[in-house]
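W.,

You were right to be curious about this one. When I first looked at the sequence I had no strong expectations either way, so I just let the prediction run and decided to look at it fresh. Below is the sequence, 169 residues in total, followed by the output.
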Amino acid sequence: FVEYEQDIDDASRNAWSVGGETSLWNKGRLYARHELASTLTGDYGLDSTDEYQSTIIGVDANYMKDGQVFSEYRVKDGISSRESEAAIGLRNKWKVRDGVYVNTSFEHLESMQGESDNTATAATVGIDYLASDKYKMSGRVEKRWGVQTDTLLTSFGYANKINDDVTLL
């Protein structure tokens, strides 16, 4: 796949992603993704002077219905061990009823080498409401316990389908 995002107010702000995946004997998959963001205010609040690159190479496998175990190698800002991490964890999706799902995950990160120790453990819980043809909602809470800092992250998404051509996010 290839993805491209462009800021409509500032032509210098954009993001590129490229990646792919392949099935592993119908039991799991091997995947990779590389992202280059030039000053899009987004995942990490970048401003007009920031740029970052990120690469993820991973493997996951189903261990139960809608449950995966995964292992990833993550590199930030170039292929060097100074900003590399290894992650292992679980992702689960639980059907509450038709169109309503609870998502949970747990992961442990280990810094591979370098000046900063980003070792951390994180747990998330989220809910997706997909039962309506007109609108969709999602919410997520993540707690991360790290060597350097502890964080609590939240996100909320809402999509409202106005007509077949227009959806408000």
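Here's what jumped out at me. The longest strand covers residues 51-64. And, maybe more interesting for your project: Residues 61 and 127 are 22 Å apart (CA to CA).

Coffee later to discuss?

I.
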